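Dear support,

We are seeing what looks like truncated structure output for some complexes. This example has two components. We would appreciate it if you could run it in full and send us the complete token output so we can diff it against ours.
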Amino acid sequence: MHIPDGFLDTKTWIGLGGISAVFVGTAVRKANKTITDKHIPLLGVMSAFIFAAQMFNFPVGGGTSGHFMGTTLIAILLGPWASILIMTTVLTIQCLIFQDGGLTALGANIFNMGIVGGFVGYYINAVIQLFIHDKKGIFFGGFTAAWCTIVLASVCCAVELGISGTMPFKIVIPAMAGIHAVIGIGEGLITVATLSLLIRVRPDLLNLQKI
Amino acid sequence: MKQTPKKNKALFIVFGLSFVVGLVFLIMPFASRKPDGLQKVTEDTMGLLKKDDFKPTINVPMPGYTIPGLKHKFDTKQYAGIIGVFVVFGVSVFVGYLLRKKRRKNL
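Here is the complete output from our reference environment:
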């Protein structure tokens, strides 16, 4: 879902770049107030994990593949503002070193995957855990939040392409949402598998103060 | 013997990064080469894209997760991935320490 250069028109990429800059600035201020020594190793290892997992495309049928986005997983473990910081780091390095996502589209990519993904994932999971407790809540909340995050981020991406005039709305929105509804199942399963592993080996990491 | 928090942190980092590096080496050969969701929609909607239509705005050292000039029996994507893993880890930890340092100053 990394938008390359040339897909967005000037008004769209500048607008989304501005919005993302505001959110990233706020994330830095929030992290500044809450970050502790305990957060830092997790921040580093999770960023590295997200980067590696985003390189692995899994087949989803119909000649398409998808990859793990990871925003929901970070949001559940570290909070929505931390997910913005981590996704900004990962997306910037992917863009500047590996040409995965365009420089002009960096703001849009941070908006779709970091900001929308982080907040949607965090709050959907939090609401589900109000009603379903214990491990069931963690797994069901994680899966549902991850699936919703992927679909919503893809719809945002589609709307941006539509606004830019790259593709017509009526084609790009259902096409992106449809493919990502399938990719979202993979996202949900990887999120649940990672949460399950962490519950076994480091359950304390699920109770860290959220950023 | 009780482990100190510093030792715990170091162990977490060593195990965490080993897991991630192992992941890159073990599963990357099985990665699908089919287009991802956005690429597929773009191809279906706009036809096969010509590279010249969407030129990147900058030149980067490892475009498309390849290492220019490197030929090896393993896919260079794995090596590029390992480099990326350590760069991402380093930058994230550096940013984390910067934020924590600033916090301590503000306290």
